[in-house]
Amino acid sequence: MPPVALTPPYSRRSSEPDADLAATALKKKLANPAATLSTTNVAVQELDASKLTFSFTTSPRAVPDEATACSGLETICSDHMICCTWKAATGWENPELKPYGPLSLMPTASVLHYATECFEGLKVYRGYDGKLRLFRPDCNANRMLMSSLRCSLPGFEPKELEKLIIALMSVDGPKWLPRDRPGSYLYLRPAVIGTQSQLGVQAPREALLFITASFMPQMDTPVGGMRLHTNPEDMIRAWVGGFGYAKLGANYGPSLLATAEARQRGYGQILWLYGPQNECTEAGASNFFIVWRTKESEGGRLQLITAPLDDKLILDGVTRRSLLTLARERLADEIEVVERRYTIDEVIEAHEEGRIVESFAAGTAVRILDPLPFLSSLFALLFFALPSLSFSL
């Protein structure tokens, strides 16, 4: 093996800007996503939803009821999906809406060996007013851009991704979310994967964007609430300097072993702790919140507390962001919103002193059920007080 030369700055504690390789690179890419489309100086095509082509299924399926759709081992998707390929030399090809079906990948595809993939999750609802409604899809599209760039996949204009999602729902939404099922929803899954069929640790020069719509089981709170097991000492889910803030599959797969063991012990999920002080971060794959009162010596104030985003340890959840925004805007006189690091020892102390009011997890797949009276209006306002996208179909 040839000798290795260390070029300063090489210290893990260096304060030089060049030491922050990933953060600096991501910042540059987010500032100009179009510049990440090609590895050459040749102009390439950007993602353009206006060039979407349509190829409709000749074998449409009947829409099952929710119970039937969620009873098997396979996720039931709608009739169509959207796909769009990317190559470093030419950019994004024209997106295509086509029948839902298998993807074709070579065994040496980058995604299968180096986890070059990211995804998003959002829902489309059939409202009681008859409209289909997407909740803050702009937030999901912007986060997916960040996640894609974080794992060296191509950039794109988030608005174009939003348009493609709407196009898919314009075709499948009326059938799969019929007007006689108000309150029902489909789960939308956009994803980008590296498809270059060449082994070697490198940024893929080929990729695929695809969007599917499927049924998703309702994840209701079990009777008595969710029991959480703190994470085992032999693993953590995310860490500062890692990629817990991006929506990558690599954040999920490695945690499943410990989660399965926790469930065998009678717990529903893991409360992930971090660092020598055992800071509370996330519950399972969801953002975690506690409502408590401060100590009498600190005024006995009611607080909604959750982990912060400044250290890029946890995911900037769209539901999380929405809850905090509404609490600050609508409940400022009743509850103080606090984003800070807090430890499991603080939680145990608050529990022993009777200061915990409630705790809950929030995410796209999980509904927040049976909140306390002072929070019920907050959750009811999620669709009406924050920007959402509705359309009549």
Tell me about this structure.
It is a single chain. It contains ten helices and 17 strands. It is α+β, with helices and mostly antiparallel strands and 393 residues long. It folds into two domains: 31-214, Aminotransferase class 4, branched-chain amino acid transferase, N-terminal domain (D-amino Acid Aminotransferase, Chain A, domain 1), CATH 3.30.470; 228-383, D-amino Acid Aminotransferase, subunit A, domain 2 (D-amino Acid Aminotransferase, Chain A, domain 2, Alpha-Beta Barrel), CATH 3.20.10.10. Strands 1, 2, 3, 4, 5, 6, 7, 8, 9 and 17 form a ten-stranded mixed β-sheet that branches. Strands 10, 11, 12, 13, 14, 15 and 16 form a seven-stranded mixed β-sheet that branches. Helix 1 (21-31) crosses helix 4 (137-150) and helix 4 (137-150) crosses helix 5. The N and C termini lie far apart (64 Å).
List keywords for this structure.
393 residues; alpha+beta; D-amino Acid Aminotransferase, Chain A, domain 1; D-amino Acid Aminotransferase, Chain A, domain 2; 2 domains; 10-stranded mixed sheet; 7-stranded mixed sheet; globular
